[in-house]
Amino acid sequence: MQVTMTVNGDEVAREIEPRLLLVHFIREELGLTGTHWGCDTSNCGTCVVWMDDEPVKSCTVLAAMAHGHRIRTVEDLERAGGLDPVQQGFMDEHGLQCGFCTPGMMMTARWLLDRDPDPDEATIREAISGQICRCTGYENIVRAVRWAAEHPATSEVHA
Amino acid sequence: MTTIEEPPAPTPMGFGRMKRKEDVRFIRGKGHYVDDVVLPGMLHGAVLRSTYAHARIVRIDTSAAEAHPKVRAVITGATLETLGLAWMPSLSHDVVAVLATDKVRFQGQEVAFVVADDHYSARDALELIEVEYEPLPPVMDARRALEPDAPVIRDDVQGKTDNHIFDWDAGDEAATDAAFAAADVVVSQDMLYPRVHPAPMETCGAVADMDPVSGKLTIWCGTQAPHAHRTLYALVAGLPEHKIRVISPDIGGGFGNKVGIYPGYVCAIVGSIVTKRPVKWMEDRSENLMSTSFARDYHMHGEIAATNDGKITALRVKVLADHGAFNNTAQPTKFPAGFFHIFTGSYDLQAAHCEVTGVYTNKAPGGVAYACSFRVTEAAYLVERMVDCLADEMGMDPAELRLKNLLKPEQFPYTCPTGWEYDSGDYPRALRLALEMAGYDDLRKEQADKRTRGELMGIGISFFTETVGAGPRKHMDILGLGMADGAEVRVHPTGKAVVRLSCQSQGQGHETTFAQIVAQELGISPDDIDVVHGDTDNTPFGLGTYGSRSTPVSGAAVAVASRRVRDKAKIVASAMLEVAVDDLEWEKGRWFVKGDPAAGKTIQEIALASHGSLELPEGVEGHLDASCVYDPPNLTYPFGAYICVVDVDPGTGQVKVRRFIAVDDCGPRINPMIVEGQIHGGLADGVGMALMEVIAFDEDGNCLGGSFMDYLLPTALECPSWEVGQTVTPSPHHPLGVKGVGESATVGSPAAVVNAVLDAIGVRHADMPLTPAQVWRTMQGSPFRTDLAIE
Ligand code: FES
Ligand code: FES
């Protein structure tokens, strides 16, 4: 079947098998490998992307269901103005180790901050509670999101 | 959009907090993990797995799968037998079935491998393979395994008539018996450290590419030990080692799960040889949880002896170790129970003795995974639970009992009753700091107060000593490969540098930490140092990253190689300055003339000169590089004091970890930010194991932890905000004094959480995981076995 959707601002059209998962569509058809997968049961959240401005687990969405919708992935966080503060926050506060959960965590963080620019610790923990990080013990992810809340402007890259 | 004004923090010239160099790609989604590898013409493999825990294979019919239009090859054990590859050596002098030929021995065991154009088709084709099984009774309980009428699992081993693997002991049995006979108080306790799983967020996988023209095999595989893999492939498959290249790209977490060689890797290689195309195999999460390296599964009987005034005199333990269907634990050859014999922990004992018996069961093989420092996790849990049991028996405060028995700083270096030589430590200082950070006395008052209102609050302490950084070559090898690691440091003509490592990061931040070590030694900015790892064609040999050995072993190798570069730079500088070598003095980044600090040459100037036409003294070669193969003289002994505070809901048994205080001493911290991150992650592991994680089985051998719906991992909601502190006691034998930290928190934290929960409910012992059901049942006086769904 034919699907058409907008991914990171670009319209893409592909001929696909109806059963193809959105996560595989993004990774394999489009080559956007920043979105990961880590389970078979919608538990890990390494696959989180946005569909029409809401985070979704892309392993739990068929590519066919995204037909006509807007998808945003981690590759779209950095814009011409520089890194998203969330990206900068993850780097500054050591919010990642292996980096595997990181794209999904950052997509949720950006969504949260768009709705609640000044979330407290409990709100941040709640927001990422559908996602698992096996490396960081979450502390520095929470701090990274707080960092982004305190530095709302897009920053220069100072890696 | 505006630009943030804050200037970036300067990069330290050596040790200190700095942002990670590798993060610039990860935060952009530009990490490169094994499933991101795409090669032209690449095919996809999938593994058919056993549905039974124990069954004879009567017949395998692959014809329908072979007829699938997108299938390129179907491989079975029979195919592999013709290549001599149906079995491969395990890491513990046993064999492991690559694809089952005679029997399946655990649920999820590999039976056949399909190679197809895409992974959906490969999975479809698995359904078309017919396997006829003759079910056999499974052995799921380690205790049942040794009964005389237990079914024999390993009848593939000639003459094998039971499920016994090994007996091993350490310590002085007679002295221990004597100490127990003389003791005023003896407490004994059975405890299980249940089977758990490292479950890194990225599952295991590989892409194999056998070039039919050059005969070179390239394997992309998220392995923690690329060099060991290459050598093993050479030995197993008879391929020449120089024709094998193992590339370990970014790894999405390892924790021990990615040390061994899994059948899927071998199948991908065979698939590539057969199809003459690259073959990718990625396991899914269920496959990861059901078939790859588990951890623990130790049934322990501990006994602790003490005098009436609370002086601990001896410790004795008997262990039944469940190794699953094949003995495939990864540990130094001489130590079948790993480093479990450090179970004397942090205490000054007269005597200790342990006996460990390993058995086969119909469970997945592997073991010694999940950040355990070769079974130090089990040892630390045992002793810290036993000390709490003793405190309970004697009505003593667990902090006071520990302070009374901890080794004193003046006792180091200390040889423990089972023979380990602890390098350095100041244990009371670490525990006192933790107690102070926690506000221990106030917590006890609060607890007493709450008790009067029927509220359950618990405070748990654990103190751990690890033995990591394996290890001295004369004692330690894995399959005959000594545990020394190489490093090479090369300064380019313009004064930038590259360091090549044998170990491999799985998130530990090696690209930053190892650049900081070179920076510390040579005064070249970490920003100007490239760290190369994870490619056997481009790095020196070494055994890899596990057992917290990267900084203790590879870190030392890098420090020594950097110092050799510095020594050579001194000779070059002396030629440049036309002074005697002995007249030079080093300050970070520069050799200068003693007494005339203005006359000197920077490392960058020296690098350029060493590559130029400067006349060098007789016998001194040009260029500026050095290497080292570091053979550690001893292991390192990180330690720490942990305190956990929990609240338990008396109605539901639900545990809330309210606070966790962790004081760690891993020697000097190269990058304190990274060290703290390692500790945070390990503490979350401890909360997970203590409260949620278990791979259990039913009596038919079905794995009950085969997905993240059943194998529960802690989320941000179960973890508190960690409170970390430190003391610094350098290792006297490590060139940088550092001890390693990767597994400290995983080793030390489970006992603190369990001690806290049991303290809250006033019960001497219950086995992990302390799920609400287990806590509630324990409060009713009937805790259950967490490893088996059998009442
Ligand atoms: S892959 Fe685990 S939730 Fe999507
Ligand atoms: S950084 Fe490794 S899983 Fe989160």
Notable traits:
heterodimer, A: 159 residues, alpha+beta, Ubiquitin-like (UB roll), DNA polymerase, domain 1, 2 domains, 5 helices, 5 strands, 31% helix, 14% strand, disordered C terminus, B: 791 residues, 7-stranded mixed beta sheet, 32 strands, 27% helix, disordered N terminus, binds FE2/S2 (inorganic) cluster
Word description of this protein:
The complex is a heterodimer of chains A (159) and B (791). With 159 residues, chain A is α+β, with helices and mostly antiparallel strands. In chain A, 31% of the residues lie in helices and 14% in strands. Chain A is built from 5 helices and 5 strands. Chain A has helices at 22-29, 85-92, 102-115, 121-127, 139-150, and strands spanning 2-7, 10-15, 48-51, 54-57, 70-72. With 791 residues, chain B is of the alpha+beta class. Helix content of chain B is 27%, strand content 24%. Chain B has 19 helices and 32 strands. In chain B, the strands form 9 sheets. Chain B has a 7-stranded mixed beta sheet with strand order 3-7-1-14-11-12-13, with helices on both faces. In chain B, β31 (655-665), α17 (672-691) and β32 (723-726) form a beta-alpha-beta unit. In chain B, α14 (510-522) packs parallel to α15 (550-577). At the A-B interface, α2, α3, α4 and α5 of A face α1 and α17 of B. The complex binds FE2/S2 (inorganic) cluster (2 copies). One FE2/S2 (inorganic) cluster (FES) is lined by residues 37-39, 42-47, 57, 59 of chain A.
